[in-house]
């Protein structure tokens, strides 16, 4: 990659109230698509200016045109149909006590061969590129995050098993990446929280109910497919992995020690690894040794799950600790996840979001003042 961005943002920012109100009005039939687009344009403009003002080295459009971070892939596919709800058991710890929260979001199953009915992020990038002079990152869902749209009940006529979905998903993403590159996109980030499920007993049990081989396919053929996508000259490819983030709850508790050897080295075409490192679930920094030489490890040390601002001295000390296992000049800093990857995720104040992103920028520029 040509340049290391020391101060990163993951993707989503909190949606302004006027945007959520506009979406609700459109759902109620009181606002048209063109009017919503104008409101989204305003939100993107403000998000880009906000990030530039704070001094971040690379920006996103805040995912202002998306309701959920996976929407570009699930929202553009023909071949899906409503199939009830899915159950997700979210967890968190408060004062040493484990708490759980069950969510039942709508489930869409693959019922026929999937096809792209519109571009995923091309228009998002084209607009944002015209509105900022900062380096601009596009976020895309990984192919493996969509494999669970295969349903034993609804999908067998179209695909024999979840693995049979993978080539179609990969081709859709490959076409999108080529289109983005042709427009001048230089940085694409794959979001893959599902890869942390591969070492979490609760998540593995859930994947097995879809298909007994699904976890193995995600870990092997899935990572190979992801790696094959990161091959466009002139484009930096990143891989963001966290353990789920919704109103302070998470889906996985797998430490990097359980994942690094099976993922880090086998995704060798990726340039940047954006890793959640804000609490005990991540484990130690030692697995950074499993990254191939020359990669960039972006340490997600700033939490989007709680209001409190991390002490600067503590973050500096943790970066120094990480540099014992991977070269300091190949490290960078970010929040551990987006600030609103799912609906209703504005769980911290706007002031706290600003303070945390300012901390990312200020500390990164202080620590790596010379830059590369």
State the main characteristics:
372 residues, alpha/beta, TIM Barrel, 10 helices
Strands side by side in the biggest sheet: 5-6-7-8-9-10
Chain-averaged pLDDT:
89
Number of separate structural domains: 1
Uncertain segments of ≥5 residues (pLDDT<50)?
none
Task: Could you tell me the CATH topology label.
Answer: TIM Barrel
Radius of gyration: 20 Å
Number of strands: 10
H/E order of the elements? HHHEEEEHEHEHHEHEEHEH
The DSSP helix count reads 10
Q: What is the CATH class?
A: Alpha Beta
End-to-end separation in angstroms reads: 11 Å
- Proportion of strand residues: 15-25%
CATH architecture: Alpha-Beta Barrel
Shape, please? globular
* Major β-sheet profile: 6 strands, parallel
Instruction: Please give the share of residues in helix.
Output: 25-40%
Class inferred from helices and paired strands: alpha/beta
Structure, described:
The protein has ten helices and ten strands. The chain has 372 residues and is of the alpha/beta class. It has one domain (17-367): TIM Barrel, CATH 3.20.20. The protein has a six-stranded parallel β-sheet. α9 (312-322) links the parallel β9 (296-302) and β10. α1 (17-27) packs antiparallel against α2 (33-54) and α5 (166-182) packs parallel to α7 (214-229).
Q: Any chance you could write out the topology, listing elements then pairs?
A:
Layout: H1 17-27, H2 33-54, H3 71-74, E1 77-85, E2 88-94, E3 97-103, E4 106-116, H4 122-129, E5 138-141, H5 166-182, E6 187-191, H6 201-210, H7 214-229, E7 236-241, H8 260-263, E8 272-276, E9 296-302, H9 312-322, E10 331-335, H10 350-367
Parallel strand pairs: 5-6, 6-7, 7-8, 8-9, 9-10
Antiparallel strand pairs: 1-4, 2-3
